[in-house]
Design goal:
By secondary structure, the protein is of the alpha/beta class. Helix content is about 50%, strand content about 15%.
């Protein structure tokens, strides 16, 4: 089956504490070492909408409707200015969070995750590979230093439990669940194996 663009979109998802940022950086370094052009990015972005979302995590969470609206606006800008141009140029885009995080975190606030997915996929390219880093809740909370009193609204136990449930429920041919309880090196090895399989299916 022909692909809509020559580049690849790889997304790392999972609840806080699963090590997504570290793994995204390591994967980017690995692929650059193979001579690939790589764009490493994250969501929320550092744009105006993304900054507002990041600030709200500590300054006071926005209403569910405001938050969802900002995520959509931030992602639209991200797709138009970075993601789609990079894919069209044949680059590998690695994202630390994407619309699956919106499904999970805003789904935990009461929105229908599948409706969020449909709204995003109307404009956001779906990933070629979705790596869900999965970790038991207690382990994740221990890693991020959260006990019964949460550091911020995004890290409350009940909310994270629901987020993990939503991440684990995502169905698509591109989904691969990675055990994030392994060592950093073992996780990266598992990720690289999946990326190699992805590129082997459509050799450049």
């Amino acid at each position: 089956m022909s692909r809509p663009y020559p580049g690849y979109l790889i997304v790392l998802e999972g609840i806080d504490g699963t090590g997504k940022s570290t793994q995204a950086r390591l994967l980017g370094d690995h692929l650059r070492g193979q001579g690939r052009e790589v764009v490493l990015s994250r969501e929320p972005t550092d744009g105006p909408h993304g900054r507002q979302l990041r600030e709200s995590a500590t300054a006071g969470r926005l209403s569910a409707e405001e938050e969802l609206g900002l995520f959509l606006s931030d992602r639209r800008e991200h797709v138009e200015t970075l993601i789609r141009p990079a894919l069209e140029a044949g680059k590998i885009v690695i994202l630390d969070r994407y619309y699956f995080s919106t499904m999970a975190y805003q789904g935990a606030r009461g929105f229908d995750p599948e409706e969020i997915r449909r709204a995003n996929e109307a404009f956001a390219p779906p990933p070629d590979l979705l790596l869900v880093l999965d970790l038991p809740l207690d382990t994740a909370l221990a890693r991020i230093g959260v006990r019964d009193g949460a550091v911020n609204e995004f890290e409350r136990r009940e909310g994270l439990a629901r987020c993990r449930e939503i991440f684990r429920s995502v169905e698509a041919p591109c989904v691969r669940v990675i055990d994030a309880g392994q060592s950093v090196q073992a996780i990266q090895a598992a990720i690289r194996k999946e990326v190699a399989k992805m590129t082997a299916r459509d050799p450049s």
